[in-house]
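User: Here's a chain of 571 residues. Predict its fold as tokens.
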Amino acid sequence: MATQKTFQEVLKERAHSECTQNMLFYPLGNTCNAKAVEITHQQALAAVSSKAAMRALPLDRPFLNWIGLDHVAGLLESHLQALWLGVGQIHYDVSRGHLVASLGKCLGGMEMRIVASDGQPAASGEAGGLEVRGRLVFQGYYRNKTATQQALTPEHWFRTGDRGRIDDNGNLSLVGRAQEVININGVKIVAIDVQTAMEKILGNRVARLVVFSSTSTALHTEQVTIAYIPKTFPVPDEEMADIAGLAKQECLLRTATLPVIFALREVTIPLLPRSALGKLSRLKMTRLFEDGTFVEDLECHQHALLRASTAVAKRNGVMPWRPNEAEAKLLEHVVETLDRGTEEVTLGPETSLFDIGFTSMHVIKLKHLIERRLGIDVPVVLIMKNPTVRALAIEIDACSKKNNSISTSFESYDPVVVFRAEGAKTPLWLIHPGVGEVLVFIGLAKCLAADDRPVLALRAAGFEPNNPGFDSIEQTVDVYTAAIRRRQPHGPYALAGYSYGAMLAFETAKRLRASGDEVRFLGSFNLPPHIKQRIHALARWVDVAFGLQRMASAYDPSGQETLEEKCDKLK
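Assistant: Prediction complete.
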């Protein structure tokens, strides 16, 4: 009886057989004109076979390749060799339900272990503190005995401060930090700092609250989560709405993100993970939250907020919102973008999307959903300038009727994107970085939400079809100055630019002052935090040359000057 061949055996047979099947690669090269390169399966498999013979790889470890899919050989390098060798790729972590890929096994010269809360080694798959030791691990702090004793055990195990688990195959997966921090898109927020701020702002409105982290599957990051015990039961809907509003405002100021907040029901309170001293464990709260223990608490809280907003609308004589077909479809997209249930999103026709937690990534996702449904191109600026469901539905309808032919001349081009229209203080005008887009300012606008100040941004031309870019810096400043005056006819003015935009802000400020207006504030956001590694990644002369060429194009729209001549003008 014939045995079934393995996939690897089939591949190796095909490597030595005639094969007419082929695939096409389209490398751009230095001419930027794509040419189709025909590669047969036999050629691809021969290349993989030769590479495997030259560099043997351990079969008991996941295969990780560093050549990206944008490279001509990326697909072959990333997948075929792993298939040829029969080693696991991401399938290992997917099959085990990991949200994040495991880090694998220890390298030579070091060993690792997971320690439970009682100081004993944890069981396989159990989460605990990660400790490492070996020839590669440092042995102590110089002339600092106290710090050394805190960091290392008597057996020279280094307490890393990370929490993780090691599976039955010896692969390490990290699950967080031992000290209680919330990692929001790589930014570490100390949980106790947020809790202290919440306790101060909420005062005696709640009996007790706890701030902990939970993982957002929509945003692929951790998020601030606040659970509180009400002072009395039942809690009036308006009281819940007031508490939620204060907590969201404070969280925006502290973290530039919106939190998940909910009141605990009486039946849930006995389930809280209290210590012998009455303290609430944030780690255990996270585990309960992600296990679904508080699902009904969240639902009850969202229903209360919806009832409160409906009651306020009735008192103010506002008719309940009955969205039309276009608004209803758009509302569905907003809910899908946020990856929440319809009842979880409190949204009126004039509610700004940025007030309910929209980020730049949400804008891109919403754009994609609308384009997929309608089959038209929806510019990002259309969403940025119309951040409410009602306004955006009207603009998308108009865009569809024009068959998406958005033609804008400089005379009619409006670069203004309104992040916050209301406020009694001097408006803040933000000017884009070199890329021309203003999505980078969304987080800043959220931080200024409680400042009672209009926040507006200026976006470069050239992003939409039939919309040319600016020809010169002078033309850019002309358009931006005119746009500012249309919205704010008189000073005092407040301007700020990000990186390249700081120069445009400076030139615009000079133009405003030349006509007798006061410029009270001129800011420069020039260096983002943690820029060192980014600069090292970009600091290649070829990138610098292309960057200078692009910037210098404003001085020579005809494109006739050489790169050297353009660089001389920039000196």
